[in-house]
């Protein structure tokens, strides 16, 4: 596998010739011809910004000579530019013009490949139209089994920079768009290869920011939870809704994968390094020193001569113009297939598109702690390099055929527009080589090995019954095991429980035992006696999996496991002890601290010492930058703590310890599940009315053994606010907290209520969110894009991107919604974000200086309504906005038009503060 020193020398000697030859190749398809036509045939003279001295210290030593454009190569020519270890080969499986600008891939149970086509990404150096609905998710199939995906459909079209694609059962995917908050399930119901059914899967999943800083890669973990980059939580679907749990910060941007033991590996972006990989992320963060071997951050790409590095000449290795320190990373995979050499199984691979390399990383575990080593560092090389500067590896995956696929965006610019602005070093290099003209291309490659043929037995899992799926759990290809487990769990077929139980106990394949165990957990069929037995297994890896899986049972009330956990703190295997300590922390076991202290003192393994000490005395929180979460203040945390106590003492008897309902026998629950409940997480008035006055009757047609919810209005406003805040925020939910003032207002409004609410009457009474429709006409007096590449549209106020007037607030500015017919409006909500002061630019010599911020909330405004758009009525006069969340209560106004209008000028000598809104929500009543 290792590349010889002689071979490296010969390759290096040929690279200059290879670099020259790519500029004169003949384009073989229409898309390449179009790129050629857009590029100038003449040498590009560098135009520096006005006032820039090329002899100054900042520009000294930079090659500013006129250059010929970097021409894209045909697929065969690019293939010849790859450098791989001896025995490895690379071949195309899908290329342009069939696909354009691929960003990620995923496979369904029949091995069909879904491609995330980010067709709006960096079409010029200013990222113009980046958020236009021109991206898509396509689906491809190799029907003639020749290794090439020749048959495809556009599964989902007209998307705004989609964040991920996750196959989720038969002919179904999960995805979401940029600047959005909702994840949707899309299904092809008629078998034509195109999604025709759209369902809400979960909400409160998004965030704002440029497209590189938003959540990505929704990923199905072995533990049946769904994870993503950036977001510090995980979600999973249950019969009663999608629930969530908080996790540690993964600090990732573009890439999530897992190993044979189900541990997730998150990929950093700007760091150029893997971000979190030591322990499962749901246990929180542990600070581990020396995670990376010496020299790990040094990439060894081929000399491509361009020196087009965002960080300038400090990031360039001379004289070859390659990257000298990792600076951008994307896509990752722990290889778990069966058609490449055995010695790379379990190795971690990720792409560095700025360096034009794919790295192979060897994880070395010592005393429970992992250190990452570049497998080719001694040879000053990488697993895969290219002399083609347009090679941009952005994703990779173990494939259904047992090999590994690499997604190559094959793009001129790989940095988002925020870092390619006029006057920057990178912009100069982009224009010098006409990299901004190379768009609309993309290739997907298969890595193979001599003597190891790809698996030609195409999977057909979507057509198989549950019993057949169970057999796949013993397959040597990890992708097939993962796909089979997911389908078993989604089918909810309990007939396979005996077979799964037997496999978990007796299979000769240890990884099959893992999948069988987690399949039982996903089916809700995991039993205490099974995990108790597996926690005593001779194999420590099995014991660890059993401990993790048992957490589900403990959360559901199986307290008998506490004794077993206590005993496992004395396990002879350090990794088992570490796992037990993390489980104890996660479950908040009684007497946890004393047991962990004793284990830490007795066990000398470095990992036990580190984990134990950081559980007992957590390290100080670090600044999470754009990937952190908003912390609660002391009052809010105190409210949640009081709410937890109330819930545990009173509500859990009927609603369950974990909020998923207490079983009453016969398949019924005593009371409805609160975890993952859309009703609970919607407008808080629903929950407040129920707690104050009680409720009876079937809920959405479902009856419960308890029959009714009794009134609790004798409790104080603070008591009601505390318990509802905990339910909305602490039971796998993610909704706003409730204040005593809100409770008092609703208490006064409903003072005449006699007896309990019938559910059907209550649900028609409380406000519900009106989702924006195409039939809504949304206009504004002033509209400017909130960021580079953003949309210029008042509709953006409903997204994380947001809407802004752009210029200084002035009297008469307005924002208006026209509904197709009259509606009963009750409330408007919006977030007024702070923005960077106009004209500010960071000083590169003082990168830690925080930018000056301006508060763009409306200083003074009114809310007006109208039935015809001509005669207006002031529903609310002289409102004052505030930073952050703004809630505008309208009572119950029947109207066709609603308008927010500024009624005050900002002083001319003040900062040029615009009026901005995002995450706008409109509430009404039936």
Textual characterization of the structure:
This protein is an alpha+beta fold. It folds into four domains: 5-449, TolB, C-terminal domain (Neuraminidase, 6 Propeller), CATH 2.120.10; 461-616, Leucine-rich Repeat Variant, CATH 1.25.10.10; 633-766, Cytochrome Bc1 Complex, Chain D, domain 2, CATH 1.10.760; 777-925, Jelly Rolls. The strands form twelve sheets. Strands 33, 34, 35, 36, 39, 40, 41 and 42 form an eight-stranded antiparallel sheet that branches. A hairpin with a 4-residue loop joins strand 7 (166-167) and strand 8. The radius of gyration is 29 Å and the shape is globular. The model is unreliable at 1-26 and 621-629 (pLDDT under 50).
Give a concise summary:
It holds the Pfam family Cytochrom_C. By secondary structure, the chain is of the alpha+beta class.
Attribute tags:
926 residues, alpha+beta, Neuraminidase, Leucine-rich Repeat Variant, Cytochrome Bc1 Complex, Chain D, domain 2, DUF7133, metal-binding, ARM-like, heme
User: What is the mean pLDDT?
Assistant: 89
Q: What is the SS-derived class?
A: alpha+beta
Give the name of the CATH superfamily of the largest domain: TolB, C-terminal domain
Overall number of strands: 42
Largest sheet report: 8 strands, antiparallel
Rounded to an integer in angstroms, the radius of gyration calculated over CA atoms is 29 Å
The percentage helix is 10-25%
Distance between the termini: 67 Å
> Number of helical runs?
20
Uncertain regions spanning at least 5 consecutive residues: 1-26, 621-629
Number of domains: 4
Q: Which range does the strand content fall in?
A: 15-25%
Indicate the CATH class of the largest domain.
Answer: Mainly Beta
- Examine the secondary-structure arrangement and name the CATH architecture of the largest domain: 6 Propeller
CATH fold name of the largest domain: Neuraminidase
Note the overall shape: globular
